[in-house]
Each structure stands twice: as C-alpha cells, then as structure tokens.
Design a protein that fits this description.
mainly alpha; Ferritin; two-stranded parallel ribbon; 10 helices; disordered N terminus
C-alpha cells in the first residue's frame, strides 16, 4: 500500500494530536529560521539577525503550546509531524536554502508564516476547549502579524547603509555565479563555432551537413565549457558561488551561442540560410556587447569593438578555409 494512504486527515486528528502537531511544526520552523540565519550570516548579517529573532519567536510559541499540552494532556507529547497529515503544507528541505537567492529565502519565510496562520485558524475551529481555542487563535494572529513584525525588524536591522550593502552583495553574487560564466559561455559559443560552421557551409554548400557540424560543435563546446567551469573553482575561496550553477550557466549559454547561427541551416536553401546565419551572428555579437555594458560596466563601444573585431576575424577565417 502506498505511503500516502497511511497519512491521517486533518479533520480526524484529536485535539491532543493537533497541539502535538503545532509543537513539532513550531520546532521545525525555528530550526529552519536558524539554518537560514547561519547560511546568510557571512554575507548578509542584518538579514541573519532578523531570522535569529524569528527563530526566537517560534521558540516562544512552542513553549506556550507545550505548557498547554502539559495542562490538558500531561507530559507525554504524541509524535506527529506535518508529513503524517494528508494535504498538510510541507517545508522545503533546509539544504535547498543554499540554492536560493536572498529574496527567495525572504519570500519562502513569508510563505511559511502564511501557512502557519492558516493552520492555527483551522486548528482553533477544530477544538471546543476555550483555553486551547484562545491560544490557537492568538498564535494565528501572531503568525499573521509575523510578516509585519519581520518588516519592523527589517527597519531595525536593515538601515539604509546596511540594506544597500546587502543588495550590493547580492548583485555581486549574481554576477559572479550567473552572469560572468554565462557571458563567457555565450562569447565562446558564438565565436568559437563560427569557423567550423561557415567553413563547412562554404566547403560543402550543403545545409544539412552544415547544421549537423554546427550542432555537434555547439553541444560539444557547451559540455566542455560547463565541465571546465564547474571543475575550475569550487567557489569556497573565490566566493563565486555554486560550481554547479556556474557550470550550467556556462554550458547552456555556450550551446545557445553556437546554435544561434547553426539553426538557420535547417533551411534547405543555402543562400537564404547563410544570409540569416550571418544576420544572427551580428545579433549575437551585439548582444554580447550589450551584456558586457549592462552587467560588467564595460563601455559599450569598446565592448562592441572587441567582440565584433574578434568575431569578424574568426568568421573570415571560416570563410577563407571553407572556400579554399
């Protein structure tokens, strides 16, 4: 029988089980917030301090619930967790926080509080004991106000200078992890595949053969570039972020850079395909110059000159070799 069939429905839980579920949920949330704080502390100390305070609030909620359970049911708390209840909201594994951006972690925390509020509202409606209903209602109100409380903590901890510093750090991390390797891949894929593709095109005058060569060159370059980027630096000392993310960015953009001027050769008419491919090359080169200008602060005309000159030389080499 499937695991899911063994899960309890929320409406079938006893009041003791609901309180026990609330206790384990508050304990889990406190641990998650502390994990967020620990992960963010080095680069985003102000936001880490916010999550420290949120974890302390979860501890307070848990303690209130334990006192209620002791008063009503004694010291033995049943073991029941979110995953034991059908249709109950689940938390993402803590290790996924290392794959999330700063804004994504903040958004995940806000979603956690909204889910907790809904749980306490349902739990309060499920109980007939006045004291229990009051506490659960109070906790629902607390979770509802937790977002506003977090905003207040943001104002306390994220003063203008600190907020600016954290945003700059996040931008720098985005550039190092995604933009820089992606740009390097796009340049490599766009430029390095020019010679083999156009050499094949002018040597064979066969669009399908040219496409196959372009596809092989693009995919091969993408795989090579991706593995090279991932293996070159684990990000621990350089701070460039996850090698997997960097490898994906470099590999995918390298492949796309080569496929851009290989795909036109799916058109069976050689002259038409070649004209479109040449137009795509110029679009790719100008796009690279634009990205360098926008994200790397390289003056546009200098970036354009460097990229277009390099691309033109490789393009010319491909035509000369293919026509020889």
């Amino acid at each position: 029988m499937a695991y899911w069939s063994h899960r309890r429905r929320f409406r079938d839980l006893s009041e003791q089980e609901i309180i026990a579920l609330a206790i384990s949920s508050e304990e889990d949330d406190g641990r998650i917030y502390r994990s967020y704080a620990e992960y963010l502390r080095a680069d985003y100390p102000q936001t880490a301090a916010i999550f420290d305070e949120m974890a302390e609030e979860e501890d307070t909620h848990r303690q209130e619930l334990i006192r209620l359970h002791q008063a009503r049911f004694g010291n033995v708390i049943p073991l029941i967790r979110r995953e034991h209840v059908a249709g109950f909201y689940a938390r993402k594994p803590v290790w996924l926080s290392k794959q999330l951006s700063l804004e994504s972690i903040r958004a995940e925390a806000a979603a956690m509080e909204r889910n907790a509020e809904q749980f306490y509202l349902r739990a309060a409606a499920h109980t007939s004991d006045a004291a229990t209903r009051k506490l659960l209602g109070d906790l629902a109100a607390a979770e509802s106000g937790h977002t506003r409380s977090a905003e207040g903590m943001m104002q306390d901890h994220l003063q203008s200078d600190a907020a600016e510093t954290e945003e700059l750090t996040a931008k720098r991390q985005f550039l190092l992890t995604w933009v820089q390797p992606g740009l390097a891949g796009l340049m490599d894929g766009s430029v390095s595949t020019l010679a083999p593709i156009f050499a094949t095109a002018f040597a064979t005058q066969d669009t399908w053969t040219t496409f196959l060569v372009g596809l092989a060159a693009s995919v091969g370059a993408g795989i090579s570039m991706g593995f090279t980027e991932a293996a070159s630096d684990d990000g621990t000392l350089s701070g460039r972020g996850s090698p997997v993310k960097r490898g994906i960015a470099a590999g995918v953009m390298t492949t796309l850079g080569g496929l851009g001027h290989a795909l036109p050769y799916l058109i069976p008419h050689f002259t038409t395909a070649t004209i479109i491919a040449i137009a795509v090359v110029f679009i790719e080169l100008w796009a690279i110059a634009w990205i360098q200008n926008k994200y790397m602060d390289t003056p546009f005309f200098r970036a354009a000159f460097q990229v277009v000159l390099g691309g033109a030389l490789v393009f010319a080499a491909g035509i000369i070799i293919g026509s020889g």
